[in-house]
Structure formats: C-alpha cells, structure tokens
Amino acid sequence: MSKKVCMFVWNHFTNDARVLRECTALSESGYEVDLICIHDPKDKSLPRFEQRNDLFKVYRIKRYPVLLEMIQKVYRFSMQNKLFGAFFLLIWGLLIFLAPILFLTLTILAVLLLKTKLNVVWVRGSLILGMIMKGYAKKYDIYHSNDLNTLPQGYFCSKWRLKPKKLIYDSHEVQTSRTGYSSPVYGKMEGFLIKRIDEMMVENDTRAKYNEDLYGFYPHVVHNYPFKQTSTNEEKVDLHAILDIPKDEKILLYQGGVQTGRGLDKLIQAVPLFNEGILVLIGDGKIKKELQTMVEEKGLQDKVKFLPKVPLADLPKYTRNAYLGFQVLNNVCFNHYSASSNKLFEYMMAGVPVVACDFPEIKRVVEGDGTGVSVDSHDPESIANGVNILLENEIMHREMKQRSLEASKKYNWENESHDFLRVYKNLFFENINAGKSEGFELKG
User: Fold this and answer.
1) How far is CA 345 from CA 277, 335, 359, in A?
2) Among residues 43, 204, 260, 305, which one has the fewest Cβ atoms lying within 10 Å of its Cβ?
3) How many CB atoms lie within 10 A of CB 406?
4) CA distances from residue 441 to 3, 33, 198, 260, 326 in whole angstroms, order as listed
5) Tens digits of residue pLDDT in 342-366
6) Quick check: 27 and 52 in contact, CB under 8 A?
7) How far apart are CA 135 and CA 177, in angstroms?
8) Does the CA dihedral 216-220-226-232 come out positive or negative?
C-alpha cells in the first residue's frame, strides 16, 4: 500500500512547473498524489478532474459559489437582453409591495456581493473551504502546501483531526517580503502557522538563511531546476516566421510573467541602445498592456515583439530560437533579490547565454558557470552593454552557449528531485520509528 499525499496550490495548475515536477517525482516513486487547485471558468477546455498518470490526479475546485454565479448570470443577461431586464425589474419592483423586507434584504445582498470587497472575501473563502473539504475527503498520510496561500488549508486538514498527519510547507516565495504582500497580516499568519508544520522547503540557501534569521531554523533547500532536456531534442517553433522577423536577425528573448519588478520597463528602455537584434517577450501579466503602450510611444514596434504565454511542454521549442535570454529582476523586495529563477535554467537547457541581474543566487550561477553576463538590472545602459558584449563577441557567445549546455547537466530536476524525495522519505521513516507505520511500500 502506497503513501497518500494531498497537495494544495493556489492556481489553475496550467503552467506551474515546480508543482508539476514535484507531483511527477512523487508519483513515479510510488506515492499516490492528489493535487487540489482552482478551476478557471473562463477556460472551457480546462477539466475539473485530470489523471496525469496512474498515481497522480488533479482536482480543481469550483471558483465561484453557486449563488454568486446565479446573481452574476442574471445581471449579465439582464444587461444584454433589455426585454428580460425590464421584466426582471418589474418582478423585482413588485417585491417592494408584496415582501418589502425580502426585497430590501435581497437588494442589499446583491449589491454587496456584486460591487464590494465582500465579493472577493466570499469567493476566496469559498475556495478555501472547498479545498479543505476536498482535503478531508480521503485518508491522506502527508499534506503539502505550496506557498502561504494554501498553508491554512494544509494546517486544518493535517492537524485538526484525532490523529494528526504530517504537513510540509513548500514556500516558493519569500512571503514576508514580496510584491503584493505588503500587509503585516501575511507575516503574522506565516509566523503562527510555521510553528505547526513538520517540514519546510525553500528555493535556495539565501532564502533558507533568511528563514533561519526570522524563525530560528534552516529549512530544506530544493532548487527550482527544470527537467533535463535531451541533446537529441532540437525541435523549434519558427519564431522568425511567426513574428515576421528576418531570418538573419537575432532574437533577444524574455520568457516569463509580465509583472511589476521584472525589469521589463528597463529592458524596453535599453532596446534603442542594442547594436542589433529584436526583443521578443513571451508571457502574460498585469503590465503587458502598459509595456505595449510604452513600445508604441517610443516607436519601437519593429524592435519589440510580444507573444502570449505558451504551454510549459512547448516552451523549449520557443527558447531554442534565442541568441540570448534575459533575467533582469529589479530589487523591489527581498523575494526578487534572493530569487534563483526557473527561467535562468530554462535558458541554460536550451544552450542560450543570458544577460542577468547581479543578485547573489543568479550571479553565482551566471558567473560561476560562465553562462552569461551580469548587469545592473536597474540601469538600461548597463543592460544594453551586457547585450552588446554578447552581440560583438561571437567566440565568447559560442563558449557561453557550450558552457550553458554543460551546466544543464548539473542544474536539472533529475538531480534535484533526490533532495526533494529525501524530505518525504524522512517523514515516512519518522512514522516508522514512532510506531505509526501501516505497511506502506515505496519505490526507489
């Protein structure tokens, strides 16, 4: 009988590379893994349930409460169909005379749920409750919470029971210093819950040391390395053809989230200083329209191209087109400053040298393994200088390309997964030593 794992993640699980790798590693080692995530009603092709392999299942929790969906559908239909809207208002108006208290109650409720922050609280609360209920639905042995936004779910499911279960906190970000998490509530919540977990994972040693200074213990380090790419896999998507770029023009690539703090505004400002090449940005995010407007205002439409995000499995086919890649995070919070960055290693797998920020974890790889050039990511001129060095020195570029491919043999998930699985095996043996084992059998 295999060990059963319940894992939580606060997204749709469509492009979460780290969680995919972890769930795959567990299932291939004999663990039964149920991943609980969020359904996206806008994506009609996204199933509520998936079976990725014999031991790895994905369950997506309904995003919106049924009552809220009904209110929203009636509201939208009324706006689109005037006749129905007029009839609905007539019926609604009759309630004033027939049931004034009911009319007032329903009106206030509808306004609150459609137009105020109560809507957000209700939706998130419903999702959290749905995840907890799903987490209680089976007898799991280990609960695994990815990031702070699923740690309460893991805590309730693992510890609020007669026989408490093991809880792993997998922190992909620095929760107490990251963009969008400025409220002290997050720090207080993490400080409370972290005392109740059994194991913790973070992305690198810089973040582990930060955690030790903050909470008094050094968590397990599991780096965010991608799957190893086979040397025989050279398939490409022709970006030159898709974007109507001349065949002899070099593609200077950024792939990833188009978000604040990624240095993308500085990158666009640097474009006029590049000696040659076309900047291509693959990804989506909150500031994409803002960046597109910036490109138009600067008249850089021929020098900067945008593509939407692509499925993780297809991304290497796009990456292989690049002459160089960018990782130019800005130091807007400790989370960015301490990042290792999955995309850094994705470029490496494709043999693409990088122009990267000079933050400790990134610089350690880029300069230590000779896979690119470190720059001041806050300065467009410094970024441009880094680009031009690689454009002007073909021998250096060729050597960095080869060193990137060599380094990829070290920085890959096939190697790193052993450290990840060791955390689970240690928990398993703790149960044996405590006399709680129920005859579980693991592979590997």
Assistant:
1) 22, 18, 15
2) 43
3) 14
4) 7, 14, 21, 46, 44
5) 889 999 999 999 999 999 999 999 9
6) yes
7) 29
8) positive
CA 355 – CA 344 distance, rounded (Å): 10
- φ, ψ for residue 160 (rounded to 5)? -90, 70
In total, the chain counts a number of residues equal to 444
Which H or E run contains 228?
A: none
Question: Which residue from 176, 179, 170 is spatially nearest to 150, judged by alpha carbons?
Answer: 170
Strands ordered across the beta sheet of 32-38:
49-53, 56-61, 32-38, 4-8, 142-146, 166-170, 199-202, 220-221
Pairwise CA distance, residues 348 & 351, whole Å: 5
Least Cα distance to 291 among 302, 276, 277, 306 occurs for: 306
Q: Using one digit for the tens of pLDDT, what is the confidence trace for 231-241?
A: 556 788 999 99
Against a cut of 0.85, is the pTM above it? Answer: no
Q: Rounded to an integer, what is the distance from CA 341 to the centroid of its chain? A: 11
Contact 425, 442 (CB under 8 A): yes
Contact 360, 206 (CB under 8 A): yes
Looking at residue 207, its amino acid is: R
List the structure tokens of 381: 């001129």
Of 181, 153, 216, 142, which is closest to residue 421 (Cα–Cα)?
142
Give the closest residue to 357 by CA, choosing from 333, 373, 334, 335. Answer: 373
Q: What are the CA-CA distances from residue 298 to residues 127, 139, 277, 287, 305 (Å)?
A: 43, 58, 17, 17, 13
How far from chain centre, in Å, is Cα 319?
A: 19
User: What does DSSP assign to residue 230?
Assistant: P
Question: Model confidence over 108-165: pLDDT tens digits?
Answer: 666 655 555 566 777 888 899 999 999 999 999 999 999 999 999 999 999 999 999 9
**Tokens 């009603």, located at residue:** 41
> Tokens representing 184?
């002290």
CA 264 vs CA 120, 155, 269, 327, 329: distances in Å? 29, 37, 9, 9, 8
